[in-house]
């Protein structure tokens, strides 16, 4: 019958069901299309409206801080691409709910539901207080540049624990700046093209074993602050570069203000962004 | 007059006012006596009763999750010895309040009140998933062995951020097992005598500059899983050893059960203790 | 006369006489053609029939465990490409004769005959018990994945000794999987094209000084488990990649069986292949 | 009854049966006494006469190259202290039988008989071609200084394989010079007192988990070429020093003959001792 | 007016005034053209005649050992490209004046005049006594191969001091062999094309913050002795390679003379060039 | 005869003739006595008066910048202890003569006269710009804290060159603060007792081979900024500690002025001492 035919066709996709959190965001939107080819069913979720839902998609509006809802969300899922939560500096109270409590809910549910792997959107802001005159590899000490960055360190520690304790694999993507194009000179260094981002997720999902991996999400830009040599087992080879965007920014002599932290540290403006007062 | 005389005498102590959190606990009780010599005023706090309060002490019952109370607690404080919070595996919800929200409150208040230094009771459980056949130094990757351990990693990241951002110094003490005597063979390795613990706090408070430091809190035991070489600038030289307690445990052939995580990893029983279900 | 003319022509080749062991094997066959351009005379040897012998070739059927025969074989040789011996898991007794006694005979004879350099076919199975989630460089600790791998470690140690003791140079090629094309997904990572293999031998022979070098023999595949940075003085820059063969294998979700050693370790099926019982 | 009483008493010793190979040698003789306290039964073996056999001992004259005899030897054994084989430079043929074939027989039998741990007498000659102006730790690259040293490298690789493959634990003791007293100035650096040797074996047997460990066997001599920091999990703390023997050697200006390998390398006279011709 | 118009145009160039020392030399001549695009005014200096002076150039014949002249030379300068001094082995007395006293004068003046950055022509001869069988990164220990190399080490130390003390930034270019084409086989490894040299200077001048950086100046040659990974923050990606010149040198078997220092060490002939006697 | 008798007696001392430069200084004076036991003849030199000259001594007033005089001074010398030159911050011109030209003269003469070894008084000020919250080992990057420190870096590079080029061995002593007792709290960390200083020189002279070695000259003080592990082949084991002097300095709360370089860096007051203007 038609059903069973489409079932067979569907069965040829590598994953049965993938969960994409933060599906309404910038990167979630980019990724949604690609996932169709990788899974029979793509469950998409966000706290914001998810737009048009495709045939192969299941949509759910869920607050990650809602434990019961998150456990339901993870049912029947093979693997998760977790882009949800807050991805900029914010008051601690907000970060606590979205990036700490929410992440715990996600991992607790994933483990209980037998999920095998999480691709976790960490951030270069987990190491943003390293100076711009250093190249950090994936073993570099954590140097969060913001409370947001601190919550990303939390996520890397929590997922490490779930791997060591239960074998639940995670790839932590320390994503740089993934936009249509760099918005300022710093982003020439941290730029990750959408195409490279999707490829990075692909590598993270399909590499047979990843353990608990950390990898920097940057394109093959001319200037590099990060070194992915030790993550080469993931097979991520970026195809794009920010060179094409260098003309957007005026070539200028260095602004060698030795005391400006936003110029000294890899995190850029983030290093001064926090801590933010709660909106009361 | 008498007052001004005693003022002068008091003024000869190195610190004006120290804050000790977790003052009612095992280690807090040990430390309370020593602090009298180091500060004119010792503010002691806990959520449990604090017992008899000495002349040089100020006592306050405070829940660290209570933001306003914590800000009041930090007023006029030179330096903090933070032993408060939960120090064993516990349901995530409890750890979130005590060790995450509570710690944020502490640092947020410390920074605003101009506190110069925090001595933070981290734990060897921040790296407890390293195998017992390795020796970890202070740059070893984080490997929390429990949700409790994850919260200690959070504390190390948060305090790093406050140092990089504001210059608020912290010494993270990765305390082993500080009891009257070791309670099991594993503690022969992780034992920290009370005397050595107090000396470690002394070094952490009085070393002129510490930046953001990490140091293992263990006595000079025969067997070592940790290496403090890179923390030698703190001047901590333990005087005690667990050798005197080795006779307490029967000498036995190795229990080489290759699959028992509590024997394979430095964290011992902690590695299986979590995650705990909330008490409902 | 004609003879002396051709002598002069021949004399323009860089080497006077090269010895190729294992010349009847898969890689030996590939290499035989290339050697014609590099040496006036190529002495080819194997325990198996060597097929048609070209004008510039000298053929000899020799068992490497035969000490006297090996000493004769090395006479008048400038350099050796040693592909001989057993290159898969085998009973220890067989490995002992071919890869241990045979190798000792080769080095003992080479040293006595004044040979200057050996290009030694070591194997990635000398380090095959490293997990697939690590990238190993040429200083990584030895982790043989089979008795075969142990004999390759022996070869690396023995050749190191002959270099330190007598200055006899060796390049140890830790060859991955050099076949017409990858035979399974693991070989997408370990694939070494024939062209790149020949280039690797060329670099090993012609680099002016190599000391005792170790280098991984893999093409520029997308996924990498090895890092040749410290061997860059050999000038090996692979031209091929297994990307063209990825379509041969069905894209599938990870088979995250945490307990399957053939998936966890770089050596793949080798890690379970041994020890083999002798055929009696 | 008497029997059952003594059985019970015996049962209080940590090991049921230990096997000591090389029991008739210098170090074997030293150790034999100590083993009485650690095991109900001590099986002692050598190719040389074993002298008087104590009540708790089982004696067997065995050639390690005799596969069947070795398998019988390992029956019912908890752990092995393997001092057997050749411990000086010798013709390769002899080393092959004693230190390669013999060692394989030992491990093959140990694995099949369910032995849990081997304490293996490796040697500083596995790294003897490191210069005397370096301090090597346990991860230093192998640099055998003799064919004997090459066989010790073989032993370290083989035992690593048996650990990774079967979980059979080994501690490789890179023993320096363990004699009544140093016989030359070099031995002031490599001296291991008999008392410290016995303690090193004790640590190797009784540490609960050792995995595959490497440790240098030297006393706390004034001058050090080795660094055991990473082996501190074994708890070996030497009590003796060669300082008491320094007076035996005339204080002299350095013999700075830059070209004398026996002065340049840690292996001393070993670096020139081999390869030895077979005695024919 | 014309003046003010050209002023405005000029003002659009990134630098106001650059100083180029050694402007009459081989590399200075190459660079002079490129600088026109980067600065309104290029001050060129040498002790040799400077040829035709362009409109945007200011020329000055100055001996760097002349303190007062050097201070005048640095007035009004934004950044310096320092190619001046002696760039080959020479009698110590000459090196002392040009490369030590002269360099001190330059930095002393630069600091007093508020110069922000120096691009300093160091040399691979600062590390030329590393063997050709090693790949050195930018943290490799200094191993000068000549008195000239010693003065380059001095320059790296002096510039480090001026950065740590005053924040005056320097990029030390460890230039290989920058000529029209390689002159001998060694230069196939150390070759730096003129185009890549100019790009390296461009990166060194325009990277926003460089601190005190070290980078090897070599093109993307097939064989590499150096590793610039840790300098990737400078964005230097060489476009050229010496491969096109390999045909110039006859392919030959290795000249494995173990005792020839010019073949053993990266510095080549420099390692025997000094110390030179003064010309008297 | 009497002469020949005393010759024979003298011949029993390890060295025939030692040269001590800087013999009139603080440390030179300390050392002079000890040298009597180590050499038949001790040649002492300084630019200042040398006081009473003992029977076994040869005294010479020499300016190290006087090339001819230095060459004469080195005649017939086995080994040199070079304490001469300037040991505090000074105008560059003075440092250039004493510590650069003077040092070159010394090494040039030593090499020509066949001297075998130099014990060179380098300084912790060669690495004084490392922060006080780090522990530096002997491979730590050079971070001179003064022009004086830069000249000590020069000395380490120059002596490295003479070793690599000619085999002339040097031990660079990075001496801390060697006085009767510490003069300020910083010196509690850098204190080197006179007894330990003399022992350090003894080790440097009598260790059979030293190559080009670097070692920190500090006693076994409680707080350490340096790590001599890699120099353990010298056998230096300090006997003294500054603990006995801690009572001299008032125990105070940290002076956590984040911007005071003299508190932040190991070099203490040196980091601000230079560059000094010449005395004109």
UniProtKB/TrEMBL annotation, chains A, B, C, D, E, F:
The record's listing under Gene3D superfamilies reads: NAD(P)-binding Rossmann-like Domain
InterPro entries from the entry?
A: Epimerase_deHydtase, NAD(P)-bd_dom_sf
Query: Keywords in UniProt for this one?
Result: NAD, Oxidoreductase
> Which Pfam families does this chain map to?
Epimerase (PF01370)
Q: Does the keyword Cell membrane apply?
A: no
Location of the NAD-dependent epimerase/dehydratase domain: 19-177
What family does this belong to?
Answer: Belongs to the NAD(P)-dependent epimerase/dehydratase family.
Q: Under which name does UniProt file this protein?
A: NAD(P)-dependent oxidoreductase
């Amino acid at each position: 019958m038609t059903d069973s035919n489409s079932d067979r066709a569907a069965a040829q996709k590598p994953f049965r069901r993938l969960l994409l959190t933060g599906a309404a965001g910038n990167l979630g939107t980019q990724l949604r299309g690609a996932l169709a080819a990788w899974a029979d069913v793509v469950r998409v979720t966000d706290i914001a409206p998810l737009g048009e839902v495709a045939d192969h998609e299941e949509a759910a509006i869920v607050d990650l801080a809602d434990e019961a809802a998150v456990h339901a969300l993870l049912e029947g899922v093979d693997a998760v691409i977790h882009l949800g939560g807050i991805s900029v500096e914010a008051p601690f109270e907000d970060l606590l709910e979205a990036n700490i409590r929410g992440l715990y809910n996600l991992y607790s549910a994933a483990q209980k539901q037998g999920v095998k792997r999480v691709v976790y959107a960490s951030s270069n802001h987990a190491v943003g207080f390293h100076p711009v005159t250093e190249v950090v590899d994936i073993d570099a000490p954590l140097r969060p540049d913001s409370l947001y960055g601190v919550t990303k360190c939390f996520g890397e520690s929590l997922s490490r624990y779930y791997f060591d304790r239960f074998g639940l694999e995670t790839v932590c993507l320390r994503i740089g700046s993934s936009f249509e194009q760099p918005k300022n000179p710093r982003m020439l260094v941290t730029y990750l093209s959408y195409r490279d981002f999707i490829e990075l997720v692909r590598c993270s999902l399909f590499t047979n074993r990843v353990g608990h991996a950390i990898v920097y999400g940057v394109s093959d830009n001319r200037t590099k602050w990060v070194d992915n040599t030790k993550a080469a087992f993931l097979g991520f080879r970026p195809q794009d570069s920010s060179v094409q965007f260098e003309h957007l920014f005026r070539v200028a002599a260095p602004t060698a203000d030795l005391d400006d932290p936003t110029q000294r540290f890899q995190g850029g403006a983030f290093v001064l962004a926090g801590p933010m007062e709660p909106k009361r």
